[in-house]
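Minutes, project check-in

Agenda point 3 was the complex the collaborators sent over. CS summarized: six entities, 472 residues total, and the question is how they sit relative to each other. Sequences were read into the notes so everyone works from the same version.
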Amino acid sequence: MEFNPTLPIYLQIMNHIKKEIVTGVLAPGERIDSVRTLSEKYGVNLNTMQRAFSELEREQVISTQRGIGSFVTQDTHIISTLKTEMSQTLINEFTRGMKSLGYNPNEIIDLLRKDLEE
Amino acid sequence: MEFNPTLPIYLQIMNHIKKEIVTGVLAPGERIDSVRTLSEKYGVNLNTMQRAFSELEREQVISTQRGIGSFVTQDTHIISTLKTEMSQTLINEFTRGMKSLGYNPNEIIDLLRKDLEE
Amino acid sequence: MEFNPTLPIYLQIMNHIKKEIVTGVLAPGERIDSVRTLSEKYGVNLNTMQRAFSELEREQVISTQRGIGSFVTQDTHIISTLKTEMSQTLINEFTRGMKSLGYNPNEIIDLLRKDLEE
Amino acid sequence: MEFNPTLPIYLQIMNHIKKEIVTGVLAPGERIDSVRTLSEKYGVNLNTMQRAFSELEREQVISTQRGIGSFVTQDTHIISTLKTEMSQTLINEFTRGMKSLGYNPNEIIDLLRKDLEE
DNA sequence: GTGGTCTAGACCACA
DNA sequence: GTGGTCTAGACCACA
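CS then shared the predicted structure for the full assembly.
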């Protein structure tokens, strides 16, 4: 059995920023705090924050302009795709876990519905 | 922002054993491998495995008889409660995540249903 | 006027490795020296070499297996595309330079032909 | 492997001025801005600009008269030789690069011709 | 100020 | 052994 290692910090930061974009905390086109500012805010090394940013840029979620700063994408299609991807990941983790406990699809939906109706 | 630390290994082991009990891999009343055997099998320190066992015993999921061994509880009520607890944890994580993405209960159920119908 | 900065070392290393792949010095599927070995061979920091590798992997030119090593892609289509891209870059630099000196296409071709016939 | 260091700034400036002479932006015999003026325009140290000028003078591309200023050579033979030298440098870089990618002379000419015909 | 690159060195998971 | 992550800190180009 292999034990769960911690999700790398840069990935946790990426997820956090993505969530802020998907939920509108960070609006399309909005300027994001500088890597310096955020590295202090998150309490991580500058390089770690830069890695998060460069990966987010590679995924076209943000765009960076040297000497100016980084900005949330203005492409709402990318943002909606992001939301779908992130929800799909949650769904997959959930259904995989429930199935490994022995629940079938109908039971999973019933349990979820009961929980949400409370 | 705080980062997710790794879940302590003894808790990961506990969850793994609980899952085996809930899904019937380990039957009610069945003898469990010794702490020593399992610590080698999982590649963890003996103390770590002992901690997992003592916690499981405290939760009445297993019972240990000195000089004889450890056994899965025969109380099926405890086992079914265990299953409910574990599924509830998954449900909570899932709904919390989906809500933080901005989905409302109806949307969550719809997305899950579509996913499970595939 | 802006002055040419040095091409980042990790890009120079990427180009060097790409050239070895395109020319067959590194065969498809062949194992590449470890990042440690190469960082010593090239006299650069381990992190710089890792950056070169991770970018090459992102471009699917090499594939990396944790704990084992990195390998040249076996996809010959990727390799031939790589060759085309690299030659196109050289062609663009050349024609841009010649045109800025005042040569027209026919003159450029003539000069090149005379040079190559020597 | 040795890495490409940045071309010294005075050489970059020399090339830039040579290109302006070869392409006629600076006509034969035309007066060139003073070292002082140009060092500010290029944003470089006065000494750097002086070095560029003294090298250009050594190559007889410009001539300087104390107290009056610097002038582009009136010798069109020198200018045409300059053009040939600069194009030869581009040709050498290009053919060396293409050959190191594995192309033979005929292929190089074909690729260039196709590119220029577009 | 801003982001980009690089070094030096540590610790980790995996095989 | 192998690659992956992270920190601390330096220097750079660009605006």
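Noted in discussion: The CA atoms of residues 23 and 73 of chain C lie 14 Å apart.
Follow-up: revisit at the next meeting once the mutant set is ready.
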